[in-house]
Specification:
single chain, Type Iii Antifreeze Protein Isoform Hplc 12, two-stranded antiparallel sheet, about 5% strand, rod-shaped
Length: about 130
Amino acid sequence: MNACLTAVALGAKIIEKHFTFDQSLKTSRDHWLSLGPKEFQEMVKKLELARISKGSEKRIEFDSEREAVKFARRSIVSTKKINIGEKISKEMLDVKRPGTGIPPKFFEKILGRTVKVEIDEDQPIQWDYLNE
């Protein structure tokens, strides 16, 4: 059974396991290796738990977590006041919570852009604050 559980944990979608009503039967070599009804039922439950425990590659955002996510994630913020027309440089930016502005993965993309609104110190940067 452990091999089956490990296989599912590693991504197997199909497993093979022999089933018997009597492991003491001498007519087949497979009976003593096979699972009985209770063991098989236990294995099925454990396999389902292993499958569920892996999670999903698809990320589903729940309504109940939407607001909390903003404060758990980070965004690009200004380290000083930035005036209209100034070009964004690394020294003007930092990354911190809350995640209500541009995500950090776009840090390099906003460097060199000019701002079209005045940005206060420690303010999350928004895309609409920047010129192309």
